[in-house]
Amino acid sequence: MTLHIKARILFLIVLFAAGSVHAQQSSERRENSGILASRARAELDDRHGATSELMSSYDRLLVISAALGRQGSRSKPDCSHLVHEIYSRAGFPYSYASSSDLYSGINEFRRVTTPQVADLIVWPGHMGIIVSPVQHSFYSSLRSGVGVDFYDSSYWRGRGNPRFYRYVKRTITADVPSSQAKGSEEETESTIVFEPAQIAIMDALVVESVRLDPEKIRDAFLKLSKDYGNSLRARDLLNQRVPVVVFDQVKVEKMKVKGKKGSVDLRIDGPLSISDGRIDQKKQHDRRRWIIDQRDRTTWQVRLPSAAVYLSRDDAVRLFAQQLAILTEGTHDESSGMQEKAELARALNALLAE
User: Fold this and answer.
1) Which are the contacts of 129, defined by CB distance < 8 A and separation ≥ 6?
2) How many CB atoms lie within 10 A of CB 333?
3) How far apart are CA 316 and CA 314, in angstroms?
4) Alpha-carbon distance values, 203 to 4, 70, 195, 293, 303 (Å)
5) What is the DSSP letter of 351?
6) Rounded CA gap, 140 and 5, in Å?
7) Tens-digit pLDDT profile for residues 270-283
8) Exposed/middle/buried for 110, CB within 10 Å: 0-12, 13-18, 19+?
């Protein structure tokens, strides 16, 4: 079955984000409390001074994003190597294990009875990553290629009952006073709260060069964009006081300099822009003329007449996914959260569908 993988997975992520995460977590704690493997693992953690915790909503989104990130690859690894690659890329490494070994159980994963997004689904001889438990879909290396299929289909039911496993994160801990431990917990929680939306908007590009050329102007623009991407971490992208322009390419089409004055014509192509909390998915093909001034012998200034934040597509995907993950964790007001989730999902869908 041929599917538009990126758009489909993003749609399923929206279903995941719109659900009640805390209710699911409460349920899984109850159902896992009687599994003997959990006790053995906890005893092992105690002996080695380690703590373990299951994946958060943000962690699961990272795994799905890592799967999306390999869509351009032409390689077709077997199912167990594919899963190992995706988990490692998402930042959740484990010692490689075949599907048969995982079906029997390994230390890095805990067996669960009700799967969630990014859990493993394992049969003897095959495995994959859960995309949507609601639609019974999973991502794996299939006969038709790497893609999504449905584990409640007749073919997969014919392979027998699968087992579901969830990654267990472990960290080595040292004994600290309870007051310090509490402070660390509060600090961790504060890191997922959005900061104010406003950031400093630059009105000029500064180019350090004795001789100005188009490539140096383009490099200065890309550096400005990267600086915006770094500044916008954990900030509310939908409520910026200036428009956000997401671009794929920037090209300097013409440059004229005479003495200490000049102008440069740029073309900025991109998939979307955001203004007043709304996403415009109309493709951008903007041509801009910016004025050039020489400040001193080695410094040029390119004035930016329109206030806007410019983000590359890759930075925009990372920031939108981060914001969606934060909203999924329930740190925002639920009354406004659903609308924000829908807008972010639209943005991600537009950015990843191509």
Assistant:
1) 63, 64, 67, 83, 86, 118, 119, 120, 121, 138, 139, 140
2) 9
3) 5
4) 40, 37, 23, 13, 6
5) H
6) 11
7) 988 888 878 888 88
8) buried
Distance CA 258, CA 250 (A): 24
- Looking up tokens 């801990």 gives 173
The pLDDT assigned to 238 comes to 78
Topology of domain 5-172, per CATH?
endopeptidase fold (from Nostoc punctiforme) (3.90.1720)
Give the Cα separation of 292 and 146 in Å (integer): 49
Residues 6+ apart with CB under 8 A from 137: 12, 130, 131, 148, 149, 150, 151
Q: Which long-range contacts (CB under 8 A, 24 or more apart) does 249-252 make?
A: 250/218, 250/221, 250/222, 251/218, 252/214, 252/215, 252/217, 252/218
Residue 164 CA to residue 175 CA, distance in Å, equals: 34
CA pair distance 68, 7, nearest whole angstrom: 10
Specify whether the CB–CB gap between 310 and 280 falls below 8 A: no
| Residue 102 tokens, joined | 């995982």
- Residue 107 has what DSSP assignment? T
Strands (E), 297-346: 299-303, 309-312
pTM, two decimals, is: 0.52
| Domain residue spans of the chain | 5-172, 204-352
The pLDDT assigned to 43 comes to 44
- 353 contacts 6 by C-beta, under 8 angstroms: yes
Torsions phi, psi of 342, nearest 5? -65, -40
For 143, residues 6+ apart whose C-beta sits below 8 A from its C-beta are: none
